Amino acid sequence: MAEIRFDNRVAIVTGAGGGLGRSHALLLASRGAKVVVNDLGGSVDGSGASSKAADKVVDEIKAAGGQAVANYDGVDTMEGAEKIVATAKDAFGKLDIVINNAGILRDVSFVKMTEDDWNKVLQVHLSGSMFVTKAAWGLLRDNNYGRVVFTTSAAGLYGNFGQANYSAAKLGTVGLAKTLSHEGAKYNIKCNVIAPIAKSRMTETIMPPDVLNKLLPEYVSPLVAYLASEGLEETAQVYAVGGGYVSRVAVMEAEGTYLDPSKGVTIEQLAERWKQVNDMSKARAFNNAMEAAGQAMKAVMGG
Ligand code: NAI
User: Does residue 257 share a domain with residue 243?
Assistant: First the structure.
């Protein structure tokens, strides 16, 4: 197969000073992309800031013969996001690819979670993804080309103890990506989502080293690069990825049951059909909200 390349493409990778983002940036740059390496350079909980992390990755890219520029703004304000996008425009003249990767953790049980723990995590993951994508959207539209990758998590897709803030923020990125994929379709802007698992400072305290060493970020980045590539056909999709495993994830709706309104839709009828309501054996995924709503309309239309 011909090598998949990114020559003449300009990419922003947020949170690229370490972990997964660094790996995404290195791979894209090694295949010809001009990369804005964004990182605030703070700690896992979002406190502090430093230019060192982004600078180091830019140096690595340049040492390998690639092109990159650093940006140290936070994704968590519209102003920061606009500066990140301006860095791409000023350094490379355009923008084609946005990888929304920056993230923080403030894990705590729901009982102990403060409003600040909630707000800060939503601000970085969900609002941050929106701010950067919104700041980029005009340039992508002008190009009539865009590849946007969002980062969710199994915690968002399935839930995880102690991560109510993170789960809510991460699943929010899925809804954002799905709607933007519809709005971007006519401009050839494709939006997809990854749910990674990888060794990073975020996971090094929760998994043993021998497991983590099988989950290198380098095993996740090829999917990100593929989702950023010109030949990509998919949009509005979510992919689980880690350690060499890659798989599409979908929200599925069961075939369900239809209660006849002319006979009254009652609690007892529902209780009698509860098994059919929950039977996922013929579950389907829908391409958009109208298609899903069509299932209820079938009942209304007597279908
Ligand atoms: P990491 O902590 O190494 O990387 C996150 C980067 O984002 C850091 O370099 C940090 O400085 C930067 N960052 C934080 N707040 C920022 C802000 N406001 N503006 C700009 N940069 C900021 O962690 P990792 O694991 O590489 O995480 C990358 C993404 O993958 C995150 O969105 C995370 O939630 C997600 N993820 C990671 C998983 C894993 O197994 N490592 C699992 C599921 C999701």
Answer: no
Instruction: Tell me if 96 sits within 8 A of 10, measured CB to CB.
Output: yes
* Residue 96 phi, psi (nearest 5): -125, -30
Ligand 1: nearest atom to the Cα of 123: 18
The one-letter code for the residue type at 137 is W
- Separation of alpha carbons 53 and 67, rounded Å: 17
Judgement on whether residues 90 and 215 belong to the same structural domain of the protein: yes
**pLDDT tens digits, residue range 29-50?**
999 999 999 999 999 999 999 9
Same domain? 203 vs 273: no
Residue 272: domain span: 252-300
CATH code of the domain covering residue 262: 1.10.287
User: Is residue 32 domain-shared with residue 83, that is, in the same domain?
Assistant: yes
Number of domains the chain contains: 2
Using CA atoms, how far residue 151 sits from 51, 142, 199, in Å, is 23, 25, 15
Residue 110 lies in a domain: yes
Neighbours of 60 (CB within 10 A): 16
Distance 301 CA to ligand 1 centre (A): 47
Claim to verify: residue 159 and residue 276 sit in the same structural domain? no
* Cut 0.70: pTM above it: yes
Residue type, position 86, single letter: A
Site to probe by mutation for ligand 1, drawn from 27, 38, 39 as the one with most ligand atoms within 8 Å of Cβ, is 39
Mutate which of 101, 119, 197 for ligand 1? The one with the most ligand atoms within 8 Å of its CB, which is 101
* 72 a catalytic residue: no
For residue range 196-249, list pLDDT tens digits in order: 999 999 999 889 999 999 999 999 999 999 999 999 999 999 999 999 999 999
